[in-house]
Design brief:
Layout (H helix, E strand, L loop, with lengths): L1 H18 L11 H4 L7 H21 L5 H13 L4 H35 L2
Helix pairs in contact: 1-3, 3-5, 4-5
């Protein structure tokens, strides 16, 4: 009974979010389909659905921070996954954001060095 109430709450909370394509084309993977491997096993099924819902939230919050080309590559990668699509997507986006920040930092350091060298006698 408690499990049924939890699942109903999960569907109620995530239902509208899953139907909404979200900002800038946020992908809409089916969490139920992604977790269907656990259909006959209530605890792993609920855990899978909870985990995917949390990763979907992470994807929604980091989507706009990720460069467009990297987003497209990450969606393609996640689409190929048989399960855990939002987990794969969230991890890929996290990596893309970190890489973009690293490139910006290196570019700033290089630019500072160039400016310093041009000012030196």
């Amino acid at each position: 009974m408690m499990r049924l109430a939890f699942l109903a709450a999960l569907v109620t909370i995530s239902g509208p979010v899953l139907a909404d394509p979200g900002p800038m084309g946020l992908p809409d993977f089916s969490i139920e389909k992604s977790c269907s491997l656990f259909a006959g096993h209530p605890r792993p099924l609920v855990l899978c659905q909870d985990t995917e819902s949390r990763y979907r939230g992470e994807v929604a919050s980091s989507w706009a921070q990720t460069p467009v080309l990297e987003r497209e590559a990450c969606v393609k990668l996640a689409s190929q996954s048989q399960r855990g699509k939002y987990e794969v997507l969230a991890r890929c986006l996290r990596t893309a954001i970190s890489e973009a920040a690293w490139k910006d930092a290196v570019g700033s350091i290089k630019q500072s060095a160039i400016e310093r060298d041009t000012r030196s006698p």
